[in-house]
Amino acid sequence: MIIGIWTKQTGVMFFPILFIYVLLFEEYDLITDFKKDTKFKIIKIFKKVFPAGIIAVMLFLFNQYYLTPKSTDSTNFLVTKFEYISTQFYVIIHYLGNFILPINLSADPDIAIIKPWYDIRILFGFLIIIGLLFIMFKTALIKKTRPIAFGIAWFFIALLPTTLNPLFQIANDHRMFFPFVGLFIAVPWGILVILEKYNLLQKSKNSLKIATLFIIIISAYSFGTVQRNKVWNSSDSLWLDVVVKSPKNGRGLMNYGLTHMAKGNYEVALEYFNRALEYTPNYYTLYINLAILNDGMNNHTKAVEHFKAALSLNSLSPAPEFYYARYLIDRQKFSEAEIYLKKAIQKSPNHTKSKELLNLISGNLKTAEEEIEELTDLIKKNPSPDLYLDLSFTYYKNKKFKMSIAACEELLKLDPNNADAYNNMCAAYNQLKEWKRGAEACEKAIKINPDFQLAKNNLKWAKDNINN
């Protein structure tokens, strides 16, 4: 149990499973004669499961509050709890189907939230669950069939953590591993009970037929296992399988694109990333990968745009700040990189990579005055939009907002359609609380680049304050 909880925290469900085991097989009198010595029986069960319960709960809490980084948040706030749980009625049918006939396994199935709650898939799943619970209660009353009740209880208890807590992935086939242990107890025992009830094992002819059937079934599952291992042989074949089975799965498309990016097939990778963007427009990891890919293709304007989109989309993970800082360091922009690395560490104090990178650049950091002087000298020699943009940002981060705006105005003389310049002006005007001028600048940025997420965020910031 301890190893299980440290491997996957759903292992804490061993405790309620142990309780059901003790209730069904060791202290069954509580069910058969509930009114007699009830308090004594409950205390007896409590004594048996209490040690495991204390260890399980304390270890879970220790993991959750002391070992899990503060930036980790697996709860999906984009859906309501009711929508998520009602969809799980259908997801459970999906899992049961894979138990019976696992011919459509996927490393990342793209099951989405089902609306409304009275959708036929949800209602059918609800009926299946009610049916299984009915079988569980009926079989719990007979000694011979208690393993069926125990297996069904195991299945539902092991599923509870991923069923009640809204996760970003609505379904994932690896969640079946723990619950399926229960079905592997209940189903074979149920088959054995049926075979014995109808005396199907008494005749040698029937025994031979049943044995042949089981050999065929086991052989089919074995063949399926070999085929599935071929899919899992490499990340390339694994994510291709996901893309084929779930062509609208943004995460699957992105991960398959990553396999091509690793091979240097940048154009193919970009195609899959853009397809992923259609289905997951608010996926910050995708924007980070798009930024890294565009950097590799020497499209630095797009790279920065995607990094900033990732920064605007996520407030919990240190990843957007870390990767953008790494990009800035490659361009010798150490002071700017320092800001983002400190933000990453603020989000996740134990983010080792950010600490190491910050330590690495500590000797290269310049004062604000040195950085501004250096950029000014470079502009005098060779004025360019990129240098003016860097100067504008340097002024901005040092709270010299009017100078930041002035740098952008000079930039626009060289490049009148520079969306980044208008966005920087918007952010600076917002800091000066000149909300209307900020909104006007951001509207120009969005007119030039309709997909400029950072400018949209700054425009919202300005408009919210105008309305207030």
From TrEMBL:
InterPro entries found in the cross-reference section: O-mannosyl-transferase_TMTC, TPR-like_helical_dom_sf, TPR_rpt
One Pfam match: TPR_1
TPR repeats by residue range: 250-283, 385-418, 419-452
Keyword Membrane: yes
Protein keywords: Membrane, Repeat, TPR repeat, Transmembrane, Transmembrane helix
Chain segments annotated as transmembrane: 12-28, 49-67, 122-141, 148-170, 176-195, 207-224
Lineage top rank: taxon: Bacteria
Keyword Cell division attached: no
PANTHER family in the record: PROTEIN O-MANNOSYL-TRANSFERASE TMTC4 (PTHR44227:SF3), PTHR44227
Name of the protein described by the UniProt record: Tetratricopeptide repeat protein
Annotated source species: Aquimarina muelleri
